[in-house]
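Q: Here's a chain of 502 amino acids. Please give me its 3D structure as tokens.
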Amino acid sequence: MFNHLLSLLIWLPIVGAVPVLLAGAARPNVARWLALLFMVLTFVVSLFLLPQYDAAQGGMQLGESHLWIASLNVHYGLAVDGISVALILLTTIVGILVVIGAWEVIQNKTHQYMAAMLVLEGLMIGVFCATDALLFYVFFEAMLIPMFILIGIWGGPRRVYATLKFFIYTFLGSIFMLIALLYLYHKAGTFDLRTLAALPLTFTEQAWIFFAFLLAFAIKVPMVPVHTWLPDAHVEAPTGGSVVLAAVMLKVGTYGMLRFILPIVPDAGAHFTWVVVVLSLIAIVYIGYVALVQEDMKKLVAYSSVAHMGFVTLGIFIAFMLARELGDVDTARLGMQGAMVQMISHGFVSGAMFTCIGVMYDRLHTRLIKDYGGLINVMPWFGFFYVLFAMANCGLPGTSGFVGEFMVILASFKASPWIALFAAFTLIIGAGYTLWLVKRVLWGEIHNPHVAEMKDISGRETLVLGAFAALVLALGIWPEPLIHLMDSSVTQLVQQLAIHKI
């Protein structure tokens, strides 16, 4: 089993989608229980990664390699490092919570919804395991299909517009990535990522490849100015789709930067670091102001995600400045660690925020902030969880939202106090739009008679929100296990930044 652990993780949920589909529309409960069973089994299998992966050694482990397309020298190559393990665990945990969260909400074509979620989970795990660039690209593109279906069938009134915009944006970026991969294959004769990392490239070659990769992954993150597809996708997506999109799919973009930009084009990455740093700071500051004026709760949290993911890209590329220009490897490692912790934290916090919005929407069928007010009077337990997640979204110490952002700000200060100032400014803006949202939704008197009739969260909803709360608090109070899991892998990534190919 352990020799094929990664393959099992990828294909267990994908194969599990078949009996879920066969359950059919006539047996929705069977489809629900089967989907939950396969999600739980995948999570249990993912737990075996922890004892099998040697965090102290780091590097890519648990490898599998089988010849896939002999004529092109393409391999079915899989392996994981500490960062991959953390993201896989995030994916399998969120998968369970999404299925439970949709238990009573999805009544139309339940079997197809659950099957799409299972396929999506398997494909996302595949992205985090692939060590062959073409295999990575296949998983990277295939993820679009189940998400396209989830938004297109179970989405809101403008779901067709949102799905087409989502697909066109992400597919366009992927075309540039494919062109870069074909050029690298022409030079190396293989798609193996380790071989591509060792391939000598001129600065001109690196520059073109850098921007091809950056466009593909920036759209996925998403970074300013290619972020406009995200709010529309979130608003129209069903709650489960929004949770998976924010918690896991956005991380594929930053993960791709780690696997492709850092090792393959380090000189271009170092030279154009300022581009990514500036775009990240714009996302952190400007998008925060955009969130302030939103009237739709989902749009507000979607823009919040863009701002928080700006910390991840800032932490990754600030490491270039620290390692290359200042020779400060230790602080570069701190910035990179902060970015990785922020990736995991944002997965839990944003997933929880979208789940809370889904709980309210299921009762009142509106996401407009003005339709609420005084909700704490009729839903006190829900209010408790909502305030907790809002505090985490603000970066309150003791929650997961604080740890990664604080580490990135510390590293940024060593690179430039001005960068740190702009990055830290988001804590003020984030508190502004998040607390204002909480004030208008939870506090005050009830003005809408329909709000007065709303029931507090059920046992199923308490289970989902309680799990998110436990994860947010655990990571905020004791982040050491996560940092230790990724530390050796982060150290090796930072060491790659110092490599010159020219």
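Q: Can you summarize the key feature?
A: The mean pLDDT is 90.
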